[in-house]
Write a structure and sequence with these properties.
Blueprint (H helix, E strand, L loop, with lengths): L2 E6 L4 H13 L4 E5 L8 H8 L8 H20 L3 E5 L2 E3 L3 H8 L8 E3 L6 E5 L3 E2 L5 E7 L6 E4 L1 H13 L5 H6 L6 E5 L3 E3 L31 H25 L3 E5 L17
Parallel strand pairs: 1-2, 1-3, 5-10
Antiparallel strand pairs: 3-9, 4-11, 5-9, 6-8, 6-12, 7-8, 8-10
Helix pairs in contact: 3-5
């Protein structure tokens, strides 16, 4: 069985308890990975990491990226696939069966996202049957989401290599633009973040305030005019890369909204989500 590696901050024991309860209910082995706190990052180091993406990243966003990078290193060091989870991910009851089907797919898969975030994705028109209604479809372009994904050692090595060459970004943005990955999507999606429950008409309250974008969050301003225009140029370049990517796959792929199997989340009424 592929085990879950849960990224969790020390000061979020309620989130850890939720994941322990959820994964125990699904009979999935779990390992906690201590998330990097923004307060651990020296200001000078933060400045070297925060200014290389399409806008200036906050210290919490940098810490989130570094936490995911630590998870990639964990996968590479263990030399086996893991289900990497943020601690507010909500899983379908079918996840254990899906993981069982994927365990021996390392020869053709680097990365599989279980998640959907109410945004369209470019997926291959062909699919591979997994279990029940669930399929595996090649993922060509995603836009967001890093709450629940399966990473194989081959994918971890590619991401770590890219992290050596490229500046940090939002964790999900970094994953989405890593076209060197052999990426796949579970369809329908088998995970969402708790903040997406209302978008998918699930009657579960999200008890957690975001540690990345709290209610009083405002984006960090660029240090100076030069950085401001660098961010603008990078954003335009990223949009062009996405456009070229979509053109290159448009004949074999389609742009779709990934649904969920709503009844597969009914067991959550037994969990302490409130």
């Amino acid at each position: 069985m592929i085990s879950a590696l849960v990224i969790n901050l020390d000061h979020s024991p309620d989130r850890l308890a939720f994941q322990q309860q959820q994964l125990a209910k699904l009979n999935l082995p779990m390992q906690r990975l201590e998330a990097i706190r923004s307060t651990e990052i020296a200001h000078s180091y933060y400045e070297t990491l925060a200014n290389g993406w399409e806008r200036k990243m906050s210290s919490a966003e940098v810490a989130c990226f570094l936490s995911h990078k630590a998870a990639w290193q964990y996968v590479a060091d263990s030399n086996k696939p893991w289900l990497i989870m943020e601690d507010d991910a909500l899983l379908s009851r079918s996840v254990p069966a899906i993981l069982h089907e994927l365990i021996n797919q390392e020869d053709k898969i680097d990365y599989v996202t279980l998640e959907t975030r109410y945004r369209r994705k470019w997926l291959d028109k062909e699919s591979i049957h997994l279990v029940g209604e669930y399929q595996l479809r090649r993922l060509y372009q995603d836009r967001s989401g890093a709450a629940a994904y399966i990473l194989f050692p081959s994918g971890a090595k590619k991401l770590l290599d890219k992290a050596q060459r490229c500046a940090p970004a939002l964790a999900d943005a970094f994953l989405c633009c890593s076209y060197e990955l052999n990426s796949w999507q579970v369809y329908p999606a088998a995970a969402i973040q708790l903040d997406q429950c209302s978008n998918y008409d699930l009657d579960f309250a999200n008890p957690f305030i975001s540690t990345i974008t709290p209610l009083n969050y405002s984006r960090i301003e660029a240090n100076n005019c030069v950085d401001y225009w660098r961010f603008k140029v990078r954003r335009v370049a990223a949009q062009l890369r996405m456009g070229l990517r979509q053109l290159s796959v448009c004949r074999r792929a389609e742009r779709v909204m990934v649904p969920i199997q709503k009844n597969d989340y009914e067991y959550k009424s037994d969990l302490n989500c409130k």
